[in-house]
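User:
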Amino acid sequence: MANEKIMRIGIIGCGGIANSHAKAYAANTTCEVVACCDIVPGRAKAFAEKHGFVNAKTDYKDHADMLADKSLKLDAVSVCTYNRQHVPCAKAALEAGVHVLLEKPLCVDMDEAIDLYKTVKKTGLVLSIGFQPRFDQNMQDICDIVASGELGKIYYIQTGGGRRQGIPVGNEMSFIRDDTAGIGALADIGCYSLDMVLRAVGYPKPLTVSGYMSDYFGKDPEFFFNRADKEEVAKNFGVDDFGAGFIRLEGDIILDFRISWAMHMDTPGDTIILGTKGGLRIPSTNCWNGSIGGPMTIYKTVAGKCMEMKVPLAAASNPAGPSLWDKKIGTFLDACRNGTEAPVPIDQIIYNQAIIYGIVESAKRGEEIKLDFSDIEKL
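Assistant: Predicted structure:
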């Protein structure tokens, strides 16, 4: 460790999620945050002071201004902006020769996703997407169960989750405005539940999508009854608060997906993975938190008898040990330093994004759509 390179880090966007990045960077002895920027005047300076980044420069008007400062000698950046600025900031950093940890979702528009994919391949730099639930041991167990072959060939997956009352309004409403977020529940928490199952089955390519979206709750002022500005919130709501999709995946797998920020139900259902030799039930959580709601169950037929086997929940992380966020930051820094594959590579997450895009487009058109990856398959 004594000879390990101290990575020089910049943070682009100093709002809510950036605080989790900052804490994990501060706890990692192999890096130093040397710059922070935000388009809101004064926010970056206050953010750096809050997290004790005493040597960090903050006098930048935007990400381009920070990336142009060669005196920083940046190795990597975290992009923690609102959704519609993810790709512009990440692409600019890659083109400046800087590795990128990009918060989820990957982006809003599929053309942007393909453009960013091409930039990653062109630069050869690390771009990792912020899916910290991957480092939860229970998520690893799901992958291991499927990989073991005990379920046989997977042919059907039901997944999703969500919240009964969980629209993330905040003070600036950046999560619910179309001009900043672009997509709501589908991108905010839907991307996690998609990653949980797609990763377990090897991230097969999505072929077709039939999707549905609604915004009944977000557009209703009475849903925000405890806010004095409820009329203004409903007026600004421009994304989905519920989404669902029926997706055909390569390998003859069907994915039945639904996600919610608001609904009159505690959960839209457990995650179910059906195979020719067995099935796996993954309990949902009352409020999607990137993990699972209880012990999993494997269903098998043995000697003609129906059997059920409980899979105990993995023990909670040692409070004194690394958190999921510490692992997310640590593995990203290791990949940058060693030139290895991104912990959460765009090669996989572009399929995740394509499903979200497909649901949005299908809902708008009122018909099933085919997904086209020809632009990246020839790279």
